[in-house]
Amino acid sequence: MKMKLLASALVAAMISGPVFAHGFKGGDLEIGHPYIPTPPAVAKTAGGYLKITNTGTEADKLIAVESTIADKTEVHTTETDAEGVARMIHVPELVVPAGEAVTFERGGYHIMFMGLKSPLNEGDLVPGTLVFERAGRIDVEFSIDAPKDGEADHSGH
Ligand SMILES: [Cu+2]
User: Are 54 and 70 in contact (CB under 8 A)?
Assistant: First the structure.
């Protein structure tokens, strides 16, 4: 009986949709609101954003991101050179210092989904896994959100 109640509470939480600020936990790490601004239907790439908070006393490292929605998933950062040209750089290891948070956002760190296997539709939740050196694997769900200002043109990237 208790299990049944728990299960229906979970379902209720899930169907309330992506409007709630969702989060995930693994070890000392909290993963805040992983989301992907809805890309155009023809897009072959998409950027994902989230916030990683390390509540522990030792630094951790994000060493991989896995996802079944794309052929390849990597952590990137965006750097703008002296001429004002922005380019993306692959970040194979991202340190999350003890007691600090790292925020992924447009123009900075992002998760790059390359070779999307099917269109991502607003309101969907898609699975992914963040792999950390210390905390291990943390399964998350990215919500496909309505793009905020300036996020809609991400596809060129
Ligand atoms: Cu990128």
Answer: no
98 CA from centroid of ligand 1 (Å): 26
- CATH for 113: 2.60.40.1890
For the chain, residues with pLDDT lower than 70 are 1-20, 150-157
Instruction: From residue 65, give the alpha-carbon distance in Å to each of 3, 9, 17, 53, 114.
Output: 32, 29, 24, 16, 12
pTM metric for this prediction? 0.82
Name 142's bridge partners: 126
Please tell me the predicted confidence (pLDDT) of residue 42: 92
| Centroid of ligand 1 to alpha carbon of 76 (angstroms) | 5
CA of 58 to the centre of ligand 1 (A): 28
Domain that holds residue 39: 20-149
Please give the distance, rounded to the nearest whole angstrom, from the Cα atom of residue 99 to the centre of ligand 1. Answer: 27
What's the number of domains the chain is made of?
1
Question: Do the domain assignments include residue 144?
Answer: yes
